[in-house]
Specification:
139 residues; six-stranded antiparallel sheet; 1 helix; 47% strand
Length: 139
């Protein structure tokens, strides 16, 4: 039985591994939200389990904390639009770290953070899925 992942990224070197495991995470636009008071961005969706070697998905929370601000680009107007996460990048800065979340179709989130503070938390056991993500050139 595949294991549920509970991973934390706390520095720039941790982000690429977490990004690889979050690749092809899908969520409705309505299930991606920024809580300004808590300074936290939460994405609740289904993660493709690349680590299992078989097509499986699991319900997952992806949480970015210690945020100063969040901006969206090319965000869909429809809350039911499915968003497919392609990659997470971290760029160091003098006063803040910039975290970039790239989605299929050109949508993106740019979050400025005091530090790298990401959590990927599987909420359920992985289950088989009939579809494996397909990556095409030019996407």
């Amino acid at each position: 039985m595949p294991m549920r992942l509970h991973l934390r990224a706390e520095d720039l070197d941790d982000v690429p591994a977490l990004s690889a495991l979050a690749q092809d995470f899908v969520a409705r636009a309505a299930d991606i939200g920024f809580d300004m008071r808590a300074r936290r961005l939460v994405l609740l969706g289904n993660r493709f389990c690349w680590e299992t070697g078989r097509p499986m998905r699991t319900r997952t929370a992806l949480v970015l904390s210690s945020l100063l601000n969040v901006k969206r680009r090319n965000w869909p107007a429809q809350e039911e639009t499915m968003m497919e996460l392609l990659a997470i990048e971290a760029e160091p800065g003098e006063e803040a770290v910039t975290l970039l979340l790239h989605f299929a179709g050109g949508a993106a989130i740019r979050a400025r953070a005091e530090c790298v503070d990401l959590l990927l938390d599987d909420l359920a056991e992985p289950v088989p899925t009939p579809r494996k993500p397909v990556h095409r050139a030019g996407r």
